[in-house]
Amino acid sequence: MKILKYLFFLILIFIIGASIYVATKKGDFIIEETQTIKAPQEMVFNEVNDLTTWKNWDPWSKESEDMIISYGEKTSGEGASYSWNSDEMGDGELKTVKANPLTDIEQQITFKMPLGESTSDVHWNFEAKEDSTVVTWRMKGEQSFMEKLAFIFEDQSISEKMKPKFHKGLNNLKEVLREEMQSYSINVDGITNHGGGYYMYNATASKIPQIPEKMEDMFSDVKRYMDDNGIEKGGNPFILYNQRNQSQGTAIYSAGYFTPSEVVTPEESPILTGFLPNQRTLKITLKGNYENLQEAWADADSYIKENDLQINEEAQPFEVYVTGPNDNANPAKWITQLYIPLMPEGSISETENTPKDD
Q: What is the reported pTM?
């Protein structure tokens, strides 16, 4: 009996000692991972801010085969939330506590495991850097007694175990955004009459791939002149190709806005007035990044050849930018319309291209 008594006291002393050891063991942790993503800051922020997108890139959702996700009344911005249930991953909940547009998101995440619940603070930071965004994903918390006890028998600490998940999640996010931005479509809308009209513009010359970079400043100059002089804009900005040499990759072009009527500018003004006639055109619509414009022009050329259409060499083709970077951060949402002037229907030039019966 004495042996059993001593054994009981030894076990009790061990349990007390182990409990003291676990209780005094450092339980606070910080997990942080940073990734540079080649995407606009607004687009990256929106992707993380919208909790319905997390299932596409967060590592736990993508790795679990039985996770069931339930969304709260809000799914974006302050007060947004979602919860999950999984036999494999456990249950939990994520809430957005604060969202500062484009720069920061603060959240709380709760893990509900057999060992109990634990809540940690999550912080996201988004910093614009040239054409990319530096994203930092950080989680700070403190392990419960049972979690500390469980990790005594693990080969890795909670930080060592979770950091690869954060790294994988940011890589997934990077890939999802890349795919979203690369999405595009080209549609040949067919032959249509464009109404034309007066417009205000400035002009320059450059390599064709440089046009998207240069046109923003050109549009800004024209817009500023029109605003300063109280001149009304009659639609979306456009580029008119005075000369476009596809083989050499160069162009002379004008950037401007249509106006409701003719505007006479001073002789020394850098902003000029032009006129486009009502004309028959082939219209092509690109939905996507400007880098796909070359393919849109190639599709237009193919359509013209396949349908024996005659280009009006005396007129200038133009591109109208219906939506662009100022309207949507995602290039896949940009809409550009191409107009290629054609000879009037039934004109001699086009008739000559029509095969005749023997």
A: 0.79
